[in-house]
Amino acid sequence: MAQQALPVREARLGKPLGANGKEGAREALRRKGGGGRGAGPVSGVALLLPGGGPTGVRRPSPVAALAVRPLALRLARAGRPEGLATHVVHYRCRGWNGSAAHPARDATWALDEVVRRYGDVPVCLVGTGMGARAALHAAGHPAVHSVLAIAPWLPDHRTTGEQPDPVKQLVGRQVLLVHGTNDERHDPDLSYRYAERAKKINRDTCRFEVHSDGHSLHQHRAEVLALATDFLLGSLFARDYARPVRDALAAPPPLGLRMPLATGFGASLRH
């Protein structure tokens, strides 16, 4: 597909949540006078990369960014004691657009912006759908410590005629993919094949399957949020992973790449 020219516009970061953001400020006000410490300096960042479509150079719908906001808020609250700030990335356009890979380029811009604002802090890229693909592509940036790809869109290169999505950039990163087995929008088998290639060069790769759930993962939303939180805190702040995550990272293929996400995960985690 030929690279599409974009109208003159820039990607941007949404307002920070968590450390030095609105959520942190509210917490500081709540605790004022109680001897507690308010929002402190940022010591880690989660960049949320929304979904999108294969093509389109129009400005993205705000719905895409709103869809990842609940996850951003969940991560901000969980990571506040550690100094986590979360930002939603607002793309220049709504599509991937072939070799232009506009969302991946916007993710790289956002990583540079994080370094400019916060300095040398570890970053976790958290993407859904097309955003998950962008997160995986941008993982080679020096600031990236981990990548969480939720229901990733990974086209089948055997039918598109394009080169397979790269995996070398994942070396040295903690990588977790999670996918519903009934996803009719983005084929879960393709994310398994990608994870299989990634695992060969990066042992710190694992993949969870959410059985009977679809693309939006609504049926097991609580478990997916708990898994995302556990992985982010462990990968950025060296907290111990929950045992299922440790087991998935340690297990060889296919076990560590087809780890079932148990019902109730996160309700009573024992490390």
Q: Total helix count?
A: 8
Cα Rg = 18 Å
Secondary structure: helix percent: 25-40%
Order of helices and strands: EEHEHEHEHEHEHEHHE
The largest sheet is:
9 strands, mixed
Q: What general form does the structure show? A: globular
From the N-terminal CA to the C-terminal CA, the straight-line distance is 47 Å
How many E strands?
Answer: 9
Query: Approximately how much beta-strand content do the residues carry?
Result: 15-25%
Mean pLDDT across residues: 90
Outline the low-pLDDT stretches: 23-38
Estimated structural class: alpha/beta
In words, what does this structure look like?
This protein has 271 residues and is of the alpha/beta class. It is built from eight helices and nine strands. Strands 1, 2, 3, 4, 5, 6, 7, 8 and 9 form a nine-stranded mixed beta sheet that branches. α3 packs across α4 (130-137). Residues 23-38 have low confidence and may be disordered.
Summarize this structure briefly.
The chain is of the alpha/beta class and 271 residues long. 35% of the residues lie in helices and 17% in strands. This is Alpha/beta hydrolase.
Name the features.
17% strand, 271 residues, single chain, globular, 9-stranded mixed β-sheet, alpha/beta
Could you give the topology of this structure?
Blueprint: E1 12-13, E2 17-18, H1 22-31, E3 44-49, H2 62-79, E4 84-90, H3 102-118, E5 123-128, H4 130-137, E6 144-150, H5 157-160, E7 174-180, H6 188-201, E8 205-210, H7 221-237, H8 243-250, E9 259-260
Parallel strand pairs: 3-4, 3-5, 5-6, 6-7, 7-8, 8-9
Antiparallel strand pairs: 1-4, 2-4
Helix pairs in contact: 2-7, 3-4
